[in-house]
Amino acid sequence: MSQPRRSPHDSYETETTDHQTETETILLKHLPLNPESPSPLQRDAHLQFLVRNLIQGFPSRYISQDASQPWLLYWTLQSFSVMGVALDPNNKQKAIDTIMAWQHPDGGFGGGPGQAAHLLPTYAAVCALAIVGRPGPGGGWDQIDREKMYEFFMSIKQTDGAFLVAHHAEVDVRGTYCLLVTAHLLNMLTPELLEGVPAFIKSCQTYEGGFSSASQPYFSPEPEGPPTLLDLPRPPLGEAHGGYTFCSLASWIMLQPYLALQKPSLQRPSLNFKALLRWLVQMQGSEIELGGFKGRTNKLVDGCYSWWVGGCFALLSSLGIVGTHGRDNNHQSTTAHQEDEAWDDVDDSVWDRAALQRYILCAGQHPAGGLRDKPPKPADSYHTLYCLAGLSSAQHNVFLSSTRQDAIVRCWKTPPESTHAQLRQVCFSHSLSWTEEEGTSRILGAQNNQMNATHPVFNLTMTHTEGIMAHFYKQTIPSRPKKM
Q1: What is the pLDDT, as a whole number, of residue 273?
Q2: What is the pLDDT at residue 438?
Q3: pLDDT tens, residue by residue, 400-451
Q4: Which partner from 89, 296, 393, 471 sits 20 to 30 angstroms from 208, CA to CA?
C-alpha cells in the first residue's frame, strides 16, 4: 500500500511547515490498513473517562477551567447523550443542584458559584439542564429566572446588533450564538432582542468566506440624538475561524423565521454562501491528514473541528446548499439564492464524511479513554464531545422537514398570556422540524461506532430539545413516526 502524498512544500522551511511535517509523520502511523475498517470506537474506555470526571472530579490540570464549570458539565453530559447513555436519577439531581448554584442573582449563569453572568456559561448551563433537568420543584427548569435573564441579555446588547459576552467585556459572535440558543430553548424571543442581529452576523464574514469573532462598527454623529450606525464600512475583526463560523452560520439559521416575518420593503442582509462553502471545503485535510478538519487557513487538523466545521454542512443543507438529500418533496429554500447562484450542481461529495469518521476513530481516540485534538495529545472533555458530535454529524443526515414543521404548527396552541406569539410560533416549529432521514446513515466500520443524531444547531439530542422546548412554550409536540 503506497503512502499518501505529503502536503506541498515550497522549500522555505518555517515553524509552520515543521509542525505540519511533524503532524503528518505522526498521523501516518495511525493510517488504517483497510480504510473501510478503521479502529472501532472504544465506548467502554470513553464512558469510564467521562464517569471518572463526573463522579471523582476533574484532574488538577483543569484548575485553569474554574470559570468554565458549566462547560465541563455540559461537555460530559452531552457526550453521554450522543453515545446513548443516560444518568441515573441520583446523579441527575446532583447535576441540577450544581447547575443552579451557578445562576447569577441578576440573571444568566456564571462560570461557577458567585461568578459574573456570562453568555457562554449561560448556554452551557441551560443545555446541561435540558439534558438532566425536569419541571417542578428541584427540577431546575422552573427555577431559571427567565425575566432577569432577559434583562441581562438586553443590558449587554449593543446598538449595532452585537452583544457583549458579559458586562464590561468584549463582543464575540460566539456569545450571540449562545444567547440565541438560550432564548430559543427558554421561549424568550422578542423583536427587540433580535433587532440588528442579522446585520451583525453578516458583517463578521471575511474575504475568505468564513467568519471572524466580531466587526468594527462606525457611526455618523447627528446634531441631536444618538449617532447613526453606518452600513459601511463595517470590517470584520480577525481571520476566519471554524468556531466563529459555526456560531455565525447557526445563528443565521435561527434568524430565518424572524427575517421571514420582516416587511418585504425592508432590505435583508445576505451572506456570501459561495465563498463560505469554498472555505469550509478547504478546511478538510488531505489523505495524509486522515480527512480531519482544521479551524483556520494554514493550521493543523484538530478533532474539535469535526463539529465546528464538519457540522456546518448540515446547516448549509437546510438553506438548499450541499445536495438535495433529506429534503421533503415540497421543500423550498428561501435563502440559498442570495447571489442568484444555482446550487443544483453542488452535492454531498464536496466533503468526505467517511474520511472524517476515519480521522476521529483512528487519530481522535486516546488509548486510555476520551478523545483528543490529535496524537500524541491527551484526551479532554472538550475534544471528547466535539469529536463525538462530529462523528454523529458525519454519520447522519439531519434536515429541516417542512412536513414535520406543518405537523408541529397544526398542534400549536397560543398560551393566554403569550406575547410575540407569531415570532415564537415560527421559531418553535422551525427549531423542532429537524428530522433524521431514515435509511441514509453512513457508519464507517462496525455498527458499534454509531452515535445518536444530534440537533445541528443546538448540539442536543432531539429528545432533549423537544423536552425542554415543549415545557417552556407550553406545547404538546406531535410524536415522530416510529422507525421501522
Answers
A1: 97
A2: 82
A3: 999 999 999 999 998 887 779 899 999 999 999 999 988 888 999 999 999 9
A4: 393
- Per-residue pLDDT reduced to its tens digit, 24-79: 999 999 999 888 889 999 999 999 999 999 999 999 999 999 999 999 999 999 99
- The set of catalytic residues is 241, 296, 299, 302, 304-305, 373, 380, 383
Enumerate the β-bridge partners of residue 284: 293
C-alpha cell at 383: 475534544
Contact 90, 96 (CB under 8 A): no
Q: Which of 360, 392, 395, 400 is nearest to 460 (CA)?
A: 392
